[in-house]
């Protein structure tokens, strides 16, 4: 299947600030990623609980619920998604022909542990979400890969305020605490293997769990313009990661100064 950004998709993204591509990853790919995530979560949780230094941050939210950051070095399948060929046409057409990697993280959540969780609405980006620029431009493109079926509501699903990237003022946070009552708020329900792309200035939040059996597993990747200051994530990886783990194509997603010796980037 050929993947390319259509005119209809581009207009929808520019107008609404997000784009959903259902069943983007094949079932076998999703299965492999879930297995890799399970392995990575187990290792990260052990390191975190025992105080063993490791790349990135690990946030433990229960017996199983975990969020890990800086995942590119955790498993080859995670690194492969950095420049996953079917996704790159969307990244380069929507953001920049020479995108840089900004951040990566993975989420495993269970309703049985997070049934009391409230909403946490926010926009992405440094400098307080680039609020000194209004309207806020597309400076970071966020990608989410669904590893579990999220077609039902109330499973911690991602929520968005479509079109909010064009707003000149922040929404009312008290009203947003009750997303099902907020006009225009969208609970993103999609099957496993789907991908979502959204603008850094779209207001979004992980959703509430309304049933204890709910489960959410997702991978997130973010990209930025090559002229932006390097993301903090770039400092978290080892010299070995940069100099031996990345392909020639993947090296182009990072500033040249992270390599030894440094690489020329601008001719």
Structural class: alpha+beta
Query: Proportion of β residues?
Result: 15-25%
Write down the overall geometry. Answer: globular
Total strand segments: 10
Written as H for each helix and E for each strand, in order along the chain, the element string is HEHEEHHEHHEEHEEEEHH
* Mean pLDDT value: 95
Q: How is the main sheet built?
A: 7 strands, antiparallel
H/I helix tally:
9
Radius of gyration: 18 Å
- Order of strands, widest sheet: 1-8-5-10-4-3-2
* Percentage of residues assigned to helices: 25-40%
Uncertain runs with pLDDT below 50, 5 residues or more?
Answer: none
Quaternary structure state of the chains depicted: single chain
The termini sit apart by 35 Å
Task: Give your account of this protein's structure.
- With 267 residues, the protein is an alpha+beta fold.
- It has 9 helices and 10 strands.
- The chain has a 7-stranded antiparallel β-sheet with strand order 1-8-5-10-4-3-2. A 3-stranded antiparallel β-sheet has the order 7-6-9, with no helix packed on it.
- It is globular and about 55 Å long.
- The two termini are 35 Å apart.
Features of this protein?
267 residues, alpha+beta, seven-stranded antiparallel beta sheet, 9 helices
Give the SSE layout.
Layout: H1 7-16, E1 18-21, H2 27-50, E2 58-60, E3 66-69, H3 76-80, H4 88-94, E4 100-110, H5 111-114, H6 126-130, E5 140-146, E6 158-160, H7 173-176, E7 186-187, E8 195-199, E9 204-206, E10 215-224, H8 239-245, H9 248-251
Describe the structure concisely.
Helices cover 26% and strands 19% of the residues. With 267 residues, the protein is of the alpha+beta class.
């Amino acid at each position: 299947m050929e993947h390319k950004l259509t005119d209809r998709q581009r207009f929808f993204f520019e107008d609404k600030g997000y784009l959903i591509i259902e069943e983007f990853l094949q079932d076998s790919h999703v299965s492999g990623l879930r297995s890799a995530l399970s392995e990575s979560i187990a290792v990260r949780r052990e390191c975190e609980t025992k105080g063993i230094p490791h790349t990135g941050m690990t946030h433990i939210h229960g017996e199983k619920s975990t969020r890990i950051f800086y995942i590119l070095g955790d498993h080859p399948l995670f690194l492969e998604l950095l420049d996953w060929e079917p996704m790159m046409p969307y990244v380069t057409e929507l953001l920049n022909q020479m995108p840089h990697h900004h951040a990566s993280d993975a989420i495993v959540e269970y309703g049985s542990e997070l049934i009391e969780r409230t909403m946490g609405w926010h926009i992405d980006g440094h400098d307080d979400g680039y609020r000194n620029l209004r309207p806020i431009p597309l400076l970071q493109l966020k990608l989410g890969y669904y590893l579990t079926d999220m077609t039902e509501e109330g499973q911690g699903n991602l929520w968005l305020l479509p079109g909010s990237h064009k707003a000149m003022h922040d929404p009312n946070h008290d009203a947003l605490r009750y997303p099902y009552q907020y006009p225009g708020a969208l609970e993103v329900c999609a099957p496993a293997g789907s991908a979502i792309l959204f603008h850094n200035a779209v207001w979004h939040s992980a959703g509430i769990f309304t049933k204890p059996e709910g489960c959410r597993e997702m991978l997130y990747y973010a990209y930025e313009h090559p002229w932006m200051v390097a993301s903090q994530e770039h400092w978290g990886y080892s010299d070995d990661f940069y100099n031996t783990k990345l392909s020639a194509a993947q090296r182009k997603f990072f500033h040249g100064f992270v390599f030894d010796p440094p690489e020329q980037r601008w001719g």
